[in-house]
Structure formats: structure tokens, C-alpha cells
Amino acid sequence: MWVFAVIISIMLKIAFYGGAQEITGANYLLENSETKVLIDCGLFQGVKVCEDKNWDVFPFSAKDIKALFVTHGHLDHIGRIPKLLRDGFNGRIFSTSPTRDFSRLMLIDSLGILSKEAAREKREVFYSEEDVEKAMSFWEVVEYDKPVEVGDLNVTFREAGHILGSAMIEIEADGKKIVFSGDLGNPPTPLLKEPYKFRKADYLIVESAYGNREHEGREERKIKLERVIEDTIKAGGVLMIPAFSLERTQELLFEFNDLVEHGRIPSVPVFLDSPLAIHATEIYKKYESYFNKEAKYLIDSGDDIFKFFGLEFTLTTEQSRKIIGAPNPKIIIAGSGMSTGGRIIHHERAYLPDPNNTLLLMSFQSPGSLGRKLQDGDKKVRILGEEITVNARVEAIGGYSAHADSIGLLDFIDSIPDLKKVFVVQGEPAASMFLTQRARDYLGVDAVVPSLGDSFDLV
User: Fold this and answer.
1) Which CATH architecture is the domain 218-396 placed in?
2) How big is the chain by its Cα radius of gyration, in Å?
């Protein structure tokens, strides 16, 4: 009995408190007898920007956590960090430099949206701007491939290729190596380096947002983008592109820059109508050393890869309102990527009824979101309390996704030898189960889809 108790006391464990059979809310607890750490602490997002369970008490003691490792700056990976501090966390926070900058930007920006939702529901927001600044005071930056130690854990950040500064987290503990993919990139991308290739790991926690779908190739997606632009301009219409402020918008600016400068599309006004995306683009410019060789070559040759003739940044609300008075044809890039808020919904309300216009979806559309309804072909939607008839064309390009597709994810799993077990997370149940079954059948890997709250011993 005494020997058994000792074994239990040193057991390495992982628990899944978010991102389990759902895409958002990434939150994983890794612990042994010496140390407890978290990987990501994200916002749960669904039909509403902020779901009710974001207010729930954490299922662990926040004050017992020694460190939080952040894979990247999207809200579904960082959105509850200030709440973690409010609930007693007093440890260290680690990420790359771009992720730290993006996190501060995103957390303060989302606070405004959350405050409006909370006011409608007559409850308080679960964090304040002061909590964000407190989190920044705990935040330490690390470089890729340079290990840090927390307790008896050895932790290394590896390039994920998802957004600027995104990382996979490699943790060595108790003689085992555990890899958290975070969100895995979709190479080749216009801006970022390819994901790191692991030589070995014992356990892998891998995302599955596109676990049951395949993307178009790089050339195919660019040709399709060019065609949609040309068709809309020829019709004298408005092209609306809901885009996430991090990575998708910057990739689009890069692609538009190339298309315009090489005369592949007519020159028309292009409005970047998103203060968050504008500020995020400034952060991109700050960290050019993180770009791939192709992007750095263009920058070194004097090309401003995020600027071209006809592009206008509309930072203020007044500037945004003036877009409707600009003559057609024109192109509007605005957030949010799933049309769950932001300025894009005002443009959709104005322009979706016109058959000459086009809505181009280039991001994953969560079930229940307005973007998903439009993608699924709904002809009547409610926007800002008004019923809107959808006569505009709705197009989708999956190839610009910042997430690896089913083939990319399977190849990533297959590239890591000697895996004892794979935990498939951060996907809708159908996507996670599809990838899990493929890993079992094609690769002979022990793969499982954990449920929320599940805990596993890593032996």
C-alpha cells in the first residue's frame, strides 16, 4: 500500500478544461507532484462572442498554478487570462514577443464587446483593463527553441506557423516529452515560416478545427480570390470580406499588394475597416524578423507588403460610415471573421440584399454564427435586429485558413515517431472524431477525443 501511494504522488497527469470536443476555450492543466502549469486559457465562443461558461469558476485552484504557457494571441487561447489572475493566479506567463503584444491588444479590444454583452444581460464582465495590465506585468517573453525551466519542467516554444509568433509547446517532465500543437499552421503561407518538425514525443495534444476537411492549394486559392474580385468588379458591386484581425487580414493585404502591383486585378478602392486589424498590422511591421524568407526578401527590396494603391485604412467610426458613400465597385475587409460583431455586420446589412455584391468567407465559421448561416445558404438572416434578404453571392475559400487541414494534421501526427498517445482537441466533435479515426486506422496511433473535464495519467 505504501509503494502504491508513492507512485500516485509522482504521476504526471493532464486534464482538459476547454477545447475538448469544441473549438474554443483552450485550457489544459499539466501536473506532477512538484509542479502545476497551464497551457492556454482561452475564451469560450459560440453563438455569442462570450458564452456563459466563461463566468464559471475554474475547476482548479488558480493560486496553485506556477506558470501559464500561451501558444498564440487569439482570444480562444488567451481570453480568460485576466480572469485567471482575478481568481488568484500569481505565477509566470510565457509566450513569444508578438504573442504578448497581440494578447494585450486583443484582451483590451474584446473588453468593449464583452462589456456590451454583460450590460445587456445585467451582469459584470469577468475582467477589467486593470486585470489586463496586471497580466502584462507577469508576462515574460521567450524565443523559439530556447528552453525555460519552471519547477522540474523543461519547456521549449517551437514555431507553429499559425499566426505571427504562434508556438507549439514542448514540455519535458518525468522523463517524458509532451507536445501541445496550439493551432497548427497551413503551409505554405505568404508570411510565415513552416511549423517545426519534432524528432520524437511521447504524447501529442493536437488541434482538429479542419480535421475532416481539405483546403485548396496555394495557387488555386489565389486564382479563386482573383476570380471573385474580378467578377464583383465587373458587376459593379461591393466585395465584402469578413476577416480575423490577426493573420488573415495581413495575408489578404499581402495578396492584394501582389495582385495590384502586377496588374492582375483592376484598381478599385479597398477599405480596411477594422481598428483592431490596423493596430495588429502595426505589430506585424514591428516583428519582421519572424517572417519567412519570401516576405523578408520583398521587404528588403523596398516593398511595403501591407500597402498598395487604392488601400485606405478607416480607423474612426466616422471614416467607416463614409464608406457607404464611396462609389462602387469597391472592396471592404472588416472584422469579425465570423460576422458575430464588428463593423462587417453593418456592411452586410447594407449590401447583402444586392445581387451584384459578393460576400467572400475566408475563415472558419462556427456553428450558430451569422457567417455559418450565410455559408450554409440562408436567404433570410437577422442583423442588428433587422431581417435581411440575402441576394448577394456568397463565396468561400478555405485555402487561406491559418489552420492545417485534415491531410496536414494527419501528416503532422505521422511525422512524430514513438507516440504513445494522441489527444485530439479544438474541433467540432465530427472533425475531432474523423481525425482520430484516421490516426487509428491509417497510422496505427492510439488516439482519443477527450471530453471536458477528462483527466489522463501520462505513464
Assistant:
1) 3-Layer(aba) Sandwich (3.40)
2) 22
